[in-house]
Write a structure and sequence with these properties.
By secondary structure, this protein is an alpha/beta fold. Helix content is 39%, strand content 15%. It has nine helices and eight strands. The longest helix has 14 residues. The radius of gyration is 18 Å and the shape is globular.
């Protein structure tokens, strides 16, 4: 199940039967735990997240854990800006920017992009936002987390929520093998549980869907190994800072 921790009046909601994940987050004020099902309609939780402070949230999780899906749900329900590091990278690669060209080789090899490149890209994206935002897929390691903290502290806008998605590796592998993406928008489809209305075509634009070159078992195992090595210490980092529970 999701475990959602927020500064709120005490309340609990468990709705329906569905596939479940763990959602963890926290804020700097007094915390109350609320458990919600994966299939809960987020508008029902709208009042639980309006604290008067802009939301500055991270969603963490292994490749294929569902960060993009959950980011889309939060964005659509609450109207906040969602930034996916993967989408930012792919856009820069497609536009053949200087950073995109450097990132292309790493992505094609199933490797992570260097910290300097991704930090600069995220800094540029955050510089365009004045209200609430959600980061998906960044930071991936302690160095990136420290760089993000430096950016936010400079503007007196620290993180106030961190979410960690926990999904079994076998489930993730099945997801990525069947995953297709509309690159311009970042919309994600799955051939089993979220197929497009027309095979191979985006539901909204009618444009062609793509299967990412690194969405295969071999690349996945390399990415997962890198994830465990670099990102798991990140959970300890945020736990010590008091924003992960």
């Amino acid at each position: 199940m999701f475990r959602y921790t927020q500064s709120l009046n005490s309340r609990r909601a468990v709705l329906g039967q569905a596939q479940k994940q763990r959602w963890q987050s926290s804020s700097s004020a007094t915390e109350t735990a609320v458990e919600v099902d994966d299939q809960v309609q987020l508008p029902q939780l709208r009042s639980l997240t309006r604290t008067g402070t802009p939301l500055r949230m991270l969603i963490l999780g292994a490749p294929g854990a569902g960060k993009g899906t959950q980011s889309s749900r939060v964005r659509e329900s609450f109207g906040i800006t969602a930034i996916s590091s993967g989408d930012v990278l792919r856009r820069n690669i497609a536009e053949q920017t200087v950073a995109g060209q450097k990132a292309a080789a790493a992505v094609a090899s199933g490797l992570l992009v260097s910290d300097d490149i991704i930090v600069d890209l995220i800094r540029n994206e955050l510089g365009k936002i004045t209200g609430s935002w959600l980061l998906d897929g960044f930071p991936r390691n302690i160095a990136q987390a420290q760089a993000l903290d430096t950016m936010l502290e400079a503007n007196n806008q620290p993180l106030n929520a961190v979410v960690n998605l926990r999904v079994s590796e076998s489930v993730i592998l099945q997801r990525i093998v069947e995953r297709y993406v509309h690159v311009p928008s970042g919309r994600v489809y799955n051939l089993t549980y979220n197929p497009p209305k027309t095979p191979g075509v985006d539901d909204v634009t009618g444009e062609r869907l793509e299967h990412r070159p690194d969405d295969n078992p071999e690349s996945f195992r390399r990415r997962l190994e890198q994830y465990h090595k670099l990102t798991e210490p990140l959970l300890e980092y945020y736990d010590k800072s008091g924003v992960l529970t």
